[in-house]
Amino acid sequence: MYYGLLLILLPLLLGYLVVVKSTKWNHVINKSCTYMIYLILFIMGISLSQLDDLSGNATTILWYSLIFIMLPISLNLAGLWWFDKRKTKHVIDEAVTKIDKLPLILESLSLLGVVALGFVVGLFVNIEKLFINNLGEWALMALLALIGIQLRNSGIALKEILLNKAGLMIALIVIITSWIGGVVASYILDLPMNHGLAISSGVGWYSLSGILISDGISPVLGGVAFIADLGRELIAILLIPLLIKKYPGCGVGVGGATAMDFTLPIIQKSGGSDVVPMAIVSGFILTLIAPVAILIFING
């Protein structure tokens, strides 16, 4: 477990120490992060192609994914609804921009295409398993280093995180209710509890959860984690504009870790600039919690 934690935390820490002031280099880092995600998903597709009983495993992955999408997100929304009712006040003081969600949905679905491409390549090309595992490990470390750089240069200081109580509470509600959903799912599906907790700890970070759980547990559950977290992203794209005006906590929290990056533009356009700080803070915290929690539960 300690080696795994070092594998996760060291690249994140080293990346966080890098200060990038150039807009050009920030753009390069963001692009590199996207390419690394594609590489990791391609590797995951190859790993899935090497499974025995592909048709049976495909049915299992889809059924398990549905459970791990619906349970954690439903409990997230229940907890965040309670938070909105009791803790937050939100006033829209600016015009809300109409959002074209189709390009965002297509962008998310394109990630499934990358996995499918890797799957097809794995079926027809004999690639050594050890090479794929090593490549996946190095790609993950590179991605985490890039994520660390992005976190450092996100424009939010540690003091701002500690002072933004709404963002902190949203992150805590999302991760705790996701874990409860993971426990319930593990009982329904007759899985070890730590496996259910590991899958539910991804909170939207599909590239991380998929590869970590594929390596640490099995490619089948890695596929489940990937689809569940990608499903969260797709659901968030649809729900954020509907929820955020009346229930800002729900609108921010439903995206999980993506609230500080992929779904942030939707949050800003739908809810106004006043919800952006708590979105960045909640996404930031969940981005830090997810890899550590997944590794702890994998080895639990």
How would you sum up this structure in a few lines?
The chain is an all-alpha fold.
Give a written overview of the molecule.
The chain has 300 residues and is an all-alpha fold. It has one domain (2-298). It has 13 helices and no strands. Helix 2 runs parallel beside helix 9 (206-216) and helix 9 (206-216) runs antiparallel to helix 10 (219-243). The radius of gyration is 18 Å and the shape is globular. The N and C termini lie close together (9 Å).
Essential attributes:
78% helix; mainly alpha; 300 residues; single chain
Mean of all residue-level pLDDT scores: 85
| Count of structural domains | 1
Alpha carbon gap, first and last residue:
9 Å
Instruction: Report the order of strands and helices.
Output: HHHHHHHHHHHHH
Helix content: over 70%
Computed over alpha carbons, the radius of gyration is: 18 Å
The assigned structural class equals mainly alpha
In DSSP terms (H or I, runs of 4 or more residues), the helix count works out at: 13
Globally, the shape reads globular
Q: Which segments are poorly predicted (pLDDT under 50) over 5 or more consecutive residues?
A: 91-95
Query: What is the count of β-strands?
Result: 0
Profile the largest sheet: none
Query: What proportion strand?
Result: under 5%
